[in-house]
Specification:
Elements lengths: L10 E5 L3 E7 L3 E8 L5 E8 L2 E6 L80
Protein backbone atom coordinates (compact mmCIF):
# COMPACT_ATOMS: atom_id res chain seq x y z
CA UNK A 1 0.00 0.00 0.00
CA UNK A 2 1.26 3.53 -0.79
CA UNK A 3 2.35 5.85 2.01
CA UNK A 4 -0.11 8.56 1.00
CA UNK A 5 -0.76 10.94 3.87
CA UNK A 6 -3.95 12.98 3.98
CA UNK A 7 -3.50 16.72 3.47
CA UNK A 8 -3.42 18.82 6.59
CA UNK A 9 -6.18 21.36 7.05
CA UNK A 10 -5.35 25.03 6.49
CA UNK A 11 -3.78 26.73 9.50
CA UNK A 12 -4.57 30.35 10.28
CA UNK A 13 -3.28 32.97 12.66
CA UNK A 14 -5.03 36.28 13.34
CA UNK A 15 -2.84 39.38 13.12
CA UNK A 16 -3.30 42.92 14.36
CA UNK A 17 -5.05 45.40 12.09
CA UNK A 18 -7.69 43.05 10.67
CA UNK A 19 -5.23 40.73 8.93
CA UNK A 20 -4.76 36.98 8.96
CA UNK A 21 -2.03 34.52 7.91
CA UNK A 22 -3.30 31.30 6.32
CA UNK A 23 -1.05 28.33 5.50
CA UNK A 24 -2.70 25.88 3.11
CA UNK A 25 -0.95 22.61 2.24
CA UNK A 26 -1.86 21.19 -1.16
CA UNK A 27 -1.01 18.21 -3.36
CA UNK A 28 0.92 20.38 -5.83
CA UNK A 29 2.54 22.58 -3.20
CA UNK A 30 1.91 24.74 -0.19
CA UNK A 31 0.61 28.30 -0.03
CA UNK A 32 0.99 30.99 2.59
CA UNK A 33 -1.28 34.06 2.37
CA UNK A 34 -1.63 37.24 4.37
CA UNK A 35 -5.23 38.40 4.00
CA UNK A 36 -7.08 41.56 4.86
CA UNK A 37 -10.06 40.28 6.80
CA UNK A 38 -11.88 43.56 6.05
CA UNK A 39 -11.61 43.43 2.24
CA UNK A 40 -10.94 39.73 1.67
CA UNK A 41 -7.93 40.71 -0.48
CA UNK A 42 -4.76 38.61 -0.40
CA UNK A 43 -1.94 41.09 0.29
CA UNK A 44 0.95 38.62 0.16
CA UNK A 45 0.93 35.12 -1.32
CA UNK A 46 3.89 32.75 -1.27
CA UNK A 47 3.34 29.50 -3.18
CA UNK A 48 5.86 26.67 -3.07
CA UNK A 49 5.48 23.89 -5.62
CA UNK A 50 7.28 21.74 -8.16
CA UNK A 51 8.21 24.80 -10.26
CA UNK A 52 9.72 26.61 -7.27
CA UNK A 53 8.59 29.63 -5.29
CA UNK A 54 6.09 32.22 -6.52
CA UNK A 55 5.65 35.47 -4.55
CA UNK A 56 2.72 37.83 -5.23
CA UNK A 57 2.28 41.16 -3.48
CA UNK A 58 -0.90 43.16 -3.89
CA UNK A 59 -1.96 46.54 -2.60
CA UNK A 60 -2.70 50.13 -3.54
CA UNK A 61 1.02 50.85 -3.15
CA UNK A 62 3.87 48.32 -3.00
CA UNK A 63 7.40 49.53 -2.24
CA UNK A 64 10.56 47.43 -2.35
CA UNK A 65 13.60 49.10 -0.79
CA UNK A 66 17.23 48.03 -0.75
CA UNK A 67 19.99 49.94 1.00
CA UNK A 68 22.60 48.94 -1.59
CA UNK A 69 21.52 46.70 -4.48
CA UNK A 70 18.25 45.41 -5.88
CA UNK A 71 18.77 42.90 -8.69
CA UNK A 72 16.06 41.28 -10.80
CA UNK A 73 17.34 38.48 -12.99
CA UNK A 74 15.28 36.21 -15.21
CA UNK A 75 15.23 34.57 -18.63
CA UNK A 76 12.47 37.07 -19.52
CA UNK A 77 11.59 40.27 -17.62
CA UNK A 78 8.40 42.22 -18.32
CA UNK A 79 7.56 45.63 -16.84
CA UNK A 80 4.03 46.76 -17.54
CA UNK A 81 2.20 49.90 -16.41
CA UNK A 82 -1.44 50.57 -17.21
CA UNK A 83 -1.06 54.37 -17.14
CA UNK A 84 2.50 55.62 -16.70
CA UNK A 85 6.01 54.14 -16.49
CA UNK A 86 8.79 56.22 -14.92
CA UNK A 87 12.45 55.21 -14.84
CA UNK A 88 14.64 57.68 -12.92
CA UNK A 89 18.22 57.79 -11.71
CA UNK A 90 19.98 60.32 -9.50
CA UNK A 91 23.21 59.45 -11.32
CA UNK A 92 24.20 57.90 -14.63
CA UNK A 93 22.13 55.22 -16.36
CA UNK A 94 23.08 52.63 -18.97
CA UNK A 95 21.02 50.32 -21.16
CA UNK A 96 22.98 47.53 -22.83
CA UNK A 97 21.17 45.21 -25.24
CA UNK A 98 22.90 42.28 -26.99
CA UNK A 99 20.21 42.15 -29.70
CA UNK A 100 18.13 44.80 -31.45
CA UNK A 101 16.44 47.66 -29.56
CA UNK A 102 13.13 49.12 -30.67
CA UNK A 103 11.55 52.18 -29.05
CA UNK A 104 8.02 52.99 -30.22
CA UNK A 105 5.83 55.82 -28.92
CA UNK A 106 3.19 58.24 -30.17
CA UNK A 107 5.85 61.00 -29.98
CA UNK A 108 9.42 61.08 -28.69
CA UNK A 109 11.46 63.87 -27.19
CA UNK A 110 15.23 63.52 -26.67
CA UNK A 111 16.94 66.27 -24.64
CA UNK A 112 20.48 66.71 -23.36
CA UNK A 113 20.36 69.36 -20.62
CA UNK A 114 24.16 69.63 -20.57
CA UNK A 115 26.51 68.57 -23.33
CA UNK A 116 26.00 66.91 -26.67
CA UNK A 117 23.75 64.24 -28.11
CA UNK A 118 25.92 61.72 -29.85
CA UNK A 119 24.83 59.01 -32.30
CA UNK A 120 27.41 56.43 -33.41
CA UNK A 121 26.71 53.65 -35.89
CA UNK A 122 28.76 50.89 -37.44
CA UNK A 123 26.73 51.35 -40.63
CA UNK A 124 24.38 53.94 -42.14
CA UNK A 125 22.30 56.37 -40.08
CA UNK A 126 18.86 56.99 -41.57
CA UNK A 127 16.54 59.85 -40.65
CA UNK A 128 13.13 59.50 -42.22
CA UNK A 129 10.22 61.84 -41.73
CA UNK A 130 7.74 64.06 -43.50
CA UNK A 131 10.26 66.88 -42.96
CA UNK A 132 13.74 66.54 -41.48
CA UNK A 133 14.54 69.89 -39.89
CA UNK A 134 17.99 70.86 -38.64
CA UNK A 135 18.80 73.85 -36.39
CA UNK A 136 15.16 74.96 -36.32
CA UNK A 137 12.99 75.93 -33.35
Amino acid sequence: MDDVKPLAAPTSLALAGAHEIVLTPGPGGDELKIWSTQTGQALLTVSVGAEGVCVRVSGASVIIEAAELLKLEAKKLVLSALQELVVASGGAAAVTIAGDLSVVAAAQHLVATEGEVRVDANDDIRLEGERVMMNCE
